[in-house]
Amino acid sequence: MYNFDGQVIVITGAGRGLGRTYALAFASRGANVVAIDNGCELDGSGTDPSFIDDLIDLIEDIGVTPDGYCADVTDRQAMQQIIDETYDKYGRIDGLICNAGLMIPQEKSLDSLDLYRLHMEVNHFASVALAQIVLPKMQDAGQGRILFTGGLSSLYGDERLTAFAASCSANMGFVKCMARELESSNIQANVIIPANFSRISSLLSLDYDYEIMTPDLVAPAALWLMSTNAPNGMMATAGGGYYSIAESIEKNGETLDMGNQRPQEVARVLTKVNSGANNKTFVSFKVRMQFVLKQLMLKRS
């Protein structure tokens, strides 16, 4: 089930951090990894093929021959060419992991519309475009798995990450809808919501133990979500060895009489509903992370 011998797994953002960890994890389990990364700076500028070259050397040391491409995921023509070459070579694409992305902190939520466009182009539109290229080949084969990347800031908020959170929310909503479309097929689409220290998260100055929040403690969730036993339409969180499922929740509401549809009554009802028990909520991404880290430390004590 978790042996990927002969399977072809395409991974974007594979040159460093979490993407590199994914690539090594799948290669060590026999997958033919197709790694894509343009080696850009934190702001998305520049190109450096050395990261993909280093990854290829590491995978070859495992005893597997990977395919590596220094390419920009927003270049649809380049992505089409890579997928076509991959399919011509292997005759199959079993999995697509859309991991490439930017996370640029902001001082104010509305300080730059261009920053929103950049996040959407790299984090969301590029993922959707790549899925559009790959999905028909999976449909022809009658099987496949697609994994998009979400964000905890989309779920719980972070005043520094509004553009990033918006792009991840788009991913999460897209996959929820696509998964419903794929229900009758043998193709699964899911979201992974990682929490790990990286060169990107270092910009946030989060107060946690970097030795706990490592990429290799996210990879097991990706291996499951890309396996033949994968669920469909799931949003799985992973970080530090703590795994959970993120879902939209709605508390039990009340119906107001037709003659009582007034704002003060709505306020009364929703205040009462919001104070109801049985649903755990978090006021922010930071509070949620503090809760998770507390559980991790208790588990390790």
UniProtKB/TrEMBL annotation:
Keyword Oxidoreductase: yes
Gene Ontology molecular-function annotations: oxidoreductase activity
Keywords linked to the UniProt accession: Oxidoreductase
Xref: InterPro entries: NAD(P)-bd_dom_sf, Peroxisomal_Beta-Oxidation, SDR_fam
The UniProt record lists the keyword Lyase: no
Family: Belongs to the short-chain dehydrogenases/reductases (SDR) family.
PANTHER family on file: DEHYDROGENASES, SHORT CHAIN, SCP2 DOMAIN-CONTAINING PROTEIN
Record's protein name: SDR family NAD(P)-dependent oxidoreductase
Organism: Ferrimonas lipolytica
